[in-house]
């Protein structure tokens, strides 16, 4: 679960630095002005991944044996998280699961929570509460959303506001190394010219792109490390006067606090590559005086609403919150939606793409249920081609592993699974009479086991989805039965209404309207027809009760002058 930040960070840092994880490879600390990526030495995971630093696929080599240090940019907590956020976090959660469970790598993941920012301050003004109230509320909402999506929590998360003293010290180190300068106004800027042509490793970092700020910046590309305080804004004391951290410096400081001067993997959305990740690298390498602070940058593609070229974002007001999404879809459906595209690709969200994800899960579920029925002897089939299915299983295992080792190619891995399922379904053709001696349950057991293992790797839980679906359907059934019983009671009450005096020559019950007798008979027929279906209706005078067999909750419907459901 999401543990206390301070203690979790201390324990994690202590474990890494005292050697409580497998051995660490040597690292060359050097200067130089080259932008070229340097392949690290260490443990080769057997995975190749697209590295945004080299702009091509590279072998994933870790500094420590079977341990990956992984830092990700967390949320700025001023509002509810939406599907654009979910897409990035779920995709990287899948990558971490694959790396851990398929390739035996322990992933040590740290994440920052940005709990002080212009947007948080503005929201606090709107709500007339402190920024801390806003940030804590939406931080907890974010964590709940991630757990709902089955995202494994990081080993540690750290809030910016609890690390300002470290940020100040980090900035002081950059200034001492000659890579930053303070202004007379009380701001501190990173000096981009001081690192030569090493700035600009991500697309978009060249030219005169820069932050708006003081007119006395030395270069338009210089960016803020420390911002002087403004009226009504939170501030912290510093050697340059009261103020608060710039955006980029928080990640460099916190990642360095946990992992030191070497980081294996840094992840985030593609929109963060520039300027955020570019500036992170610049200030981190300036502080540590090294050539390559992070060895791999992995970037996920944007999520778009179907038919729109714009990414889903709060600023564009084109977002769907995670909570709203989960009202009509399951976490497993969203995960399958993510699995069907490469993590680096842009992804279109719409009814069609969600229907495809749901259909894929249903195909898997249907096959597993049929295979289990076959193994129990409840599904009779013609003799299966057992050797052929064993070959398809081995082929699927090999193809899935190769796909995942090739830049975590989940669409190809899912395709290999679905191909195996197709061949299995072809063999599970029901027949009226079958030779039980020719039954081959073992191969289907192996196929089902492999599917379960891979679904667990991907974080897909068909059992929980089925239970939720059954629960939802049970609730719907109860509502239908309740309305049906209410209608029947009204009809029955109408049929049982008595006349002031019996009709002459009537063969019906005294005082009843003879022409309403068929309605009573229809009510009895309905009650009798529902009983075999598990819906029991009991009539006691003007009172009707009903219950669904196997349901923990029964309903009592009473008809007097009005209707009351208890």
UniProtKB/TrEMBL annotation:
Domain tRNA synthetases class I catalytic as annotated: residue spans: 65-357
Annotated SUPFAM superfamilies: Anticodon-binding domain of a subclass of class I aminoacyl-tRNA synthetases (SSF47323), Nucleotidylyl transferase (SSF52374)
InterPro entries: Cys-tRNA-ligase, Cys-tRNA/MSH_ligase, Rossmann-like_a/b/a_fold, tRNA-synt_1_cat_dom, tRNAsynth_Ia_anticodon-bd
Keywords noted in UniProt: Aminoacyl-tRNA synthetase, ATP-binding, Ligase, Metal-binding, Mitochondrion, Nucleotide-binding, Protein biosynthesis, Zinc
Cofactor(s) listed in the protein's UniProt record: Zn(2+)
GO biological process: cysteinyl-tRNA aminoacylation; gonadotrophin-releasing hormone neuronal migration to the hypothalamus
Keyword Phosphoprotein assigned: no
Assigned EC number: 6.1.1.16
GO CC aspect terms: mitochondrion
Stretches assigned to coiled coil: none
Primary localization class, coarse: mitochondrion
A GO molecular-function annotation: cysteine-tRNA ligase activity
Catalytic activity: tRNA(Cys) + L-cysteine + ATP = L-cysteinyl-tRNA(Cys) + AMP + diphosphate; S-sulfanyl-L-cysteine + L-cysteine = S-disulfanyl-L-cysteine + L-alanine; S-sulfanyl-L-cysteine + tRNA(Cys) + ATP = (S)-sulfanyl-L-cysteinyl-tRNA(Cys) + AMP + diphosphate; 2 L-cysteine = S-sulfanyl-L-cysteine + L-alanine
Location of the protein in the cell: Mitochondrion
Function: In addition to its role as an aminoacyl-tRNA synthetase, has also cysteine persulfide synthase activity. Produces reactive persulfide species such as cysteine persulfide (CysSSH) from substrate cysteine and mediate direct incorporation of CysSSH into proteins during translations, resulting in protein persulfides and polysulfides. CysSSHs behave as potent antioxidants and cellular protectants. Mitochondrial cysteine-specific aminoacyl-tRNA synthetase that catalyzes the ATP-dependent ligation of cysteine to tRNA(Cys).
HAMAP family: Cys_tRNA_synth
Protein family: Belongs to the class-I aminoacyl-tRNA synthetase family.
Protein name: Probable cysteine--tRNA ligase, mitochondrial
Organism whose genome encodes this protein: Oryzias sinensis (Chinese medaka)
